[in-house]
Amino acid sequence: MKKTSILSILWLAGLLTFIATPSFAQEAEEAVADEAAVVVEDTVDDAADVAADEVAAIEEPTSEEAVAYEAAERTPFEEEITSDPELVNKLNQGMDEVLNALDLPEDERAELESQFKNPEERALVMAAFSSIVAGAGLIYLICAAICALIYIIALWFVFKKAGEKGWKAIIPIYNEYITYKIAGIKNWFWWSLLIAFVIWFIAGFFPAYQGIFTSVAICICGIIAIVKNFKLARNFNWGVFTSILFVLFNWICVLILWFGKSQYKGDKAE
What we know:
This protein is 81% helix and 0% strand. By secondary structure, it is mainly α. It has 3 domains: 3-60; 75-161, no CATH class; 164-259, no CATH class.
């Protein structure tokens, strides 16, 4: 075969190869893409099946598993309450009393009740609420006791300034009598007691008006107490304005009277 014929055949083969190569490459790429898509789809399906099984296992635990999990999450405080059916019942009754006292509309109460999964959880909320109230009450009692002690100590020295024995400030009711005595209106103390007793006695016959009678007694005794505090300050040589402050801020002014240099100018208590 001639050299020219061989070159012509090679040239023709190269031309055909050049023309066919893009088409072949495209077909190969499409085949690879299709195969990859199939693999990805199978992988996604397998992963979805596994995830669905895991979600089902999480969302649908057996009752025994749910109880065990809930018990494991409880604190000793919660465990002690939920393990006592009688205590749970009492706490739920307490919750009913609290909700009744709040007098909530039916829809709001129903929405609140829907937040509790079971009576045990409702009891735990009531127990926590009771603990907070008890703690606040204890703090209040401690603060009130401290304030009362400071007031009694201050009153002790005020009595001594007025020529009375300091120990008289310790005895309840009697210390009020001495205060009225130092103010120069000791008879008003007996009037305030008499008025309070009479109104209380009458209110016993008219229970429906007990609130009104109580308000009247508080107003009358309050007016007498205002006069007492005003005259007490005046007897320690306080001015009119400062005596009014003594009425408005009695607790603080008693401390000022204790630490201050004011001397008793009224008649010496008998």
